[in-house]
Fold:
Amino acid sequence: MTDLPSRYGWTDIMKRLTVISSLNSSGSIDATTLDRLLSRASVEDLHALFELLIDGQGGDLERHPWPRILAWTLTCPNEIRMSLVSNIEGRSSPMHRLRLWLDGYTERFDIDEYAALLVEAEQEEQFTFVRRLFKNAAEGKRQVSPSDLKVLLGYGAGRSSLGRLDPSLEIALTIVADQAHGFVMERHVGEVLMRHFAVESSTDYKVVGLFDECAGRAVAWGYDTDDNISRKAKPKELFFCEGRKAAVLDKEYERSFWWCRNKPCFMPSRSCKPVEEWRGYTVVDMLSILGRSWSDEEYQLFLGGLNRLNALLARLNCRSCGHMMRPQDQSNFAFYRATKFKCVNDACAEKALVYLNRCWQSKCLSVIDSRDSKACSNGMYICSVCNGCCSSKVFERRLGAIRTVGQAVPDGLMQLVVANAGHAETQEYFCHACGGPVKVVSDDYRKTLEWLKGHCRKHPSVKDGGQRSDGGWWFKLDVPPEKYVSLKKLGFQLVKDKRFNTPLVAEPWSSDKGSVGSCMNNKCRMHRVPRYGPKAVFIE
Ligand SMILES: [Zn+2]
Ligand SMILES: [Zn+2]
Ligand SMILES: [Zn+2]
Ligand SMILES: [Zn+2]
Ligand SMILES: [Zn+2]
Ligand SMILES: [Zn+2]
Structure:
């Protein structure tokens, strides 16, 4: 439509538009045409156009071109916009009215009407609803009262036949409504999840949304300004920021830092947001808008609990009946700290105890599931990710903890400590599938290592070398590029060093050694030909 008629031919335009929208089965009008038509219309024209469009589409407001027309009303002078929107609102279904509010077109708000509808809305819409509610409160447009929260929480799991509040949203609202008690995993999370997932799979669910996510580890490049900070990837399996403030300043730049998974981070991801960033509001913004106070330390511990919980949720269902297992030796709602679980469904025959534990290796922290893992000779379940199982240090720590609280020390634990029997220290690794030994490094790897050690600074190709603090060797070589590739295939790591233009060749870190292994039992499903090349690399 290049020969666009003037606004005086408006009746013709509308006729044509009606024809277009009724002819096109998707009800769509091409966007440029619509914009050009709209820009020439008077208010009366627009109202007339709306009538026609509604008739043309059988009154279906969810369909195109309504979103476009709505977006366009935002560019109109206020009075015209309000008149158009209220025209649309008057014709809308209740759900569409709620969406008009969610998208910011209307200010009309009725908590009772909307709360009942909200349970049918998408998860994202539910989050937006609560965030917009608090945005309005932050702008002083409308107070959020405890009774509002009560109305919303009235629609939690199973309380409405039409749908439910998202569990994460329910958790956040429960915390805000009950802030007198702080952040309590059992009361604010365990009870909610148990209600939602008692008879339904939690496998694909993660607590998300209204809690502060880790934005990545912050590294500092200089003294105390935000410009000297950049974000790197966040630690594995970490959703929420759990950085704990260090009691001292960083030595290099004399600035505050936080411990996050055993490494420093120079800026935690927990802070309140200005109202312009309301779409990212979390539970602490909600508390702050209501004028409540909270402890950041308690919040940090709580987020750490949620991280552990998210890793567990995928494994909390009974594999026989699908119901959520209950913690044993712990309160019903303490799944985040329990390690023993059991199905409590009377109709289910599966009554075996299931152990869910985090791998103690700080580089791994995967969930070890007794249904998938065999135990090592010390009775500890083997991690399916890193092949680690037990450590004398961990046994000693446990013994210390038991003595501190004055409980009786189990005989087995005492023997393990006395025998110094931990497998991490002896560098023995086992297969989680069959319990058999895992070959950590190939003979060829070992032969090559011995050759390098024997020729260090003696052979012209081995310029330099030495041992790291963990005992692993490193070498500075002068060899053709293809040798580096072979050495890497064999299991060595190549470490960049700014001083040289070729990498250093080093042994893997001791905590990574488990991951270079392969189950030696050829009947086991984990049995694989070793990843590393079949031939030793000799350098001459
Ligand atoms: Zn973090
Ligand atoms: Zn951080
Ligand atoms: Zn069961
Ligand atoms: Zn592990
Ligand atoms: Zn072990
Ligand atoms: Zn195996």
